Amino acid sequence: MPAPVPAPAVASAAAEYVGVWGPTPEACGARSRRRGYIPATITQDRARAGRTLCLFHDMRRSGAAWVTAAECSDRGRRWSSQVRLQVDGEHLTWSSSRGTSTYIRCGRRAG
Question: Domains in the chain, ordered, with CATH?
Fold first, then answer.
């Protein structure tokens, strides 16, 4: 009888970028949302910040980062982009042809 095959690591590793991310720690609070600091909510297949939505396709691991094709839209505008997501502790770096942004994870308590 063959040995059991371990479950693929993709599901657990993919979870590292999943969550709610703010441009600053203060942006994670409801008060800051009224001032234009909108957190991004990222799942395994999409990202949303305010009215901007990106759907991910062909997500794959590339070294310490995840790379995906993204189809994005915001207020009637649509664009495609190659997105690179890299998590370092509680920080996420989102890189695409539109630039690079760094976020901090919202909603986790210290300790």
Answer: 10-105 (2.40.128)
